[in-house]
Design brief:
The chain is mostly helical. The protein is built from 14 helices and no strands. It is elongated.
Length: 352
Amino acid sequence: MVTTKLVQYVFFFTFTGAVAFLVWKMFEPFVSALALSAIIVTICYPMYTKVLWFMPRKNETLAALLTTLLVIGIIFVPLFFLTSSLLNEALSIYSQSNAKAGGFEKGIIDLENQLQLYVPNLELNTAEYVKQSAGWLATQLGAIFASTATTIFLFFISIIGSFYLFKDGRSFTKQVLRISPLPDNQDELIISRLAIAVRSVATGTLMVALIQGTLTGFGLWLFGFERVVLWGTLASIGALIPGVGTTIIFIPSVIYLIVTEAYGSAIGLAIWGVLAVGLIDNLLGPYLMSRGNTLHPFVILLAVLGGMSVFGPIGFIVGPVVVSLLKVLLELYASHVKDEPETRSKLLSRHK
């Protein structure tokens, strides 16, 4: 028997779902920019609270404005120049033929030729792999500059979104808690643990990888290599691979210097790799990662690569954040079931 109450519920949720779908279609072009804003605000919110403390009469608008300007100077400006340089270097390698390849990639080809003197049937096709990798990287990064107007527009959307999330983030969170059907204590626990996970991933594993990549690029530049931004970026990705790290760049570089009889530079680069880069992983890494809940480095690597394939360049950050959210939800679910024996027994009885 169909009751009036049931008809009202069906109509309400159907109508609400249709409106929500329309709103999603309107907001869909800005999802990446808003996601970046949310992640940046989550990471930088402690900085906002410190800025707010110094503001006269605790002016939240002024504090949000100053924090947003700091974010632009610390994150967005360096990120823009890094991405631009990385794109130029990747396109430069991709546009070169094997015969004209120079610098690091030429060194790998020379090394392959030397190895073929001892193993005649060895065919690594290194140059082709380098070109394919650079082409993939150029394609991913090129999406940022595919439309200058769109990129600039999304950039400003992200900046404006960060400002309002700094300013009104607390009230927005309260609205989400009020709408959520979960108990408020569980909602607050999810939000707090997700924030800890996001900050831990950003300031832990990813930060260590970025520092190692920067030091790798600086070391390569110091000893005469070209396209150090590209190789430093690849070193950062390699730093996310357990048991591999930046050696994926350092070992071929040192071998190339030895093959070209630059023995002093080879020794210097090897020492730089062990001391400057290796100590970062052993000393700074455990300190940063111990500050919160983090993911396994291999899971972060998959999240970074998968995130970039789904979300584009922003997936470098969004991917680990999504996986962190799933991890937090699964942990809360497990603890919720364990804390309620009656719920667990009911779930088990359904599967008997």
